[in-house]
Amino acid sequence: MLYDFWDLDKNSSTPLYEQLYKKIIMAINSQKLRKGDKLPSIRLLSEDIFVSRTTVETAYDQLCAEGYIKNCPKRGFFVEAENSFNDSFSSVKQSASVIKPTVERFEYDFSSLSVDTQSSDIKFWTRCVKEVLDRHDIISSYGLPQGEWELRENLCSYSRSVRGVNADVDRIVIGAGTQTLLSVLLGLCSDLGKTAAIEKGFFPQGEQIFADFGYSLIPLKADKNGIILDDSIKSRILFINSSGSIRGSTPIPINKRMEIIRWAEKNDAVIIEDDFNGELRYKSKPVPALQGMCSDRVVYIGSFSKLLLPSVRISYMVLPKSLSEIYHTRSENYNQTSSKIEQLSLSKYISSGRLERQLRKLRKIYAVKSNILQDCLIEKFSNDAIVEAIETALCVRIKIRSPYTLEELKNKAFNNGIKLGKCREKNGLKYFYLCFSGIETDKIPLAVDLLKKSWE
């Protein structure tokens, strides 16, 4: 029997067995071969298409492993699969190439998705990574589900000295970002009901995780002192940032903090404190985290995106004793999502004292950037805009009136090489949050001038 549709190209770089394997699948997909059809024996097919028996046997073995054909002892090989969804392997490759994402580079980046490489400590961080890579005995194994012990030890001392967090090694859990940690945390909080109170718009990525877990969100109003809580809010989970919010740069004052703690005790609630950039306040001394005042009810979450590099995906949470006990009963069922190499590198970076030095350096840099950006916006937009700094978000908010829509304004900036981040509209004003962490200091005046021209 001759199988003309199995012609193989012996000059191709693709191995003959792989070509034959694909040809048979294509024949099944096109229904030239149907379920139950008998295939030629290995010897006969190798003679018909002029290849070795090993080539045919290797192709048949792979097809059997994937369930396309089956080997019936003393009877031969038979087609087992119905025709599949794909017409050919080439079409899969073509479709994959079509959706390949492209990396867009902007001359001026006001989004919150990057940091200025001139202010990052890449050289020393690289040295830490190289030292860890030389520890072959350590990096050749999986990491601990809870996070590497030495990093958790260093995080205890760092979070206590920099943020006033009350932590011990057993209550720290490390993961690849706040979203990942929230996914673990909400599993631990399954007995607290399916509602969560949160200041809407502060952390949409966190809101998405709550939605994925089936939570109903209670949007909280806020004033200059922070969120407003009363007896009408029926939830046992409260999500906050005590260092600031999207509404302003002021941290939650002590009286409001005490009110939040009393509310949590009254409602037997857990407070999730997302301390986003809490240590990066540059106009005044950072206010200690809420967790230090009430460690038995507060879950503290910290990260290093703006301190190191956004691509280093390491965050950590400090659990109250009650949730820590639940975590340890199931910890072996979790996989660690943060790179062991990066964890050990961060541990070295912290223990060397470099992280606190980098923190002091960044506070000075961000103070300068914030002032320059505010001055430039006030100069260029004069009375046409309201300009105000939002410290922990590392951005300056500008409110403008414009006949253009938000999308049109973003596109105008985009077309001039300016990348914008979060924006919204309220009471006829367009709000743009211009984050300065990812733009070089000397480019800020040029970027603001171009932005003004783009929006005219």
Q: Can you describe this structure in just a few lines?
A:
It contains 15 helices and 17 strands. It is α/β, with parallel strands linked by helices. The strands form five sheets. It has a seven-stranded mixed β-sheet, with helices on both faces. Strands 13-14-17-16 form a four-stranded antiparallel β-sheet, with helices on one face.
Architecture overview:
It is a single chain. The chain has 456 residues and is an alpha/beta fold. The chain has three domains: 4-98, Orthogonal Bundle (Arc Repressor Mutant, subunit A), CATH 1.10.10; 121-352, Aspartate Aminotransferase, domain 2; 358-455, Alpha-Beta Complex (Aspartate Aminotransferase, domain 1), CATH 3.90.1150. The chain has helices at 16-29, 42-48, 53-65, 89-98, 122-133, 136-139, 149-163, 178-188, 204-212, 254-266, 321-330, 340-351, 354-381, 406-414, 444-455; strands spanning 69-72, 76-79, 108-109, 172-175, 195-198, 216-219, 222-223, 226-227, 237-240, 270-274, 298-303, 315-318, 385-390, 395-400, 418-419, 423-426, 429-435. The strands form five sheets. It has a seven-stranded mixed β-sheet with strand order 4-12-11-10-9-5-6, with helices on both faces. Strand 7 (222-223) and strand 8 (226-227) form a beta hairpin. Helix 1 (16-29) crosses helix 3 and helix 5 crosses helix 12 (340-351). It is globular, with a radius of gyration of 29 Å. It starts with 15 loop residues before the first helix and ends with a helix. The model is unreliable at 87-97 (pLDDT under 50).
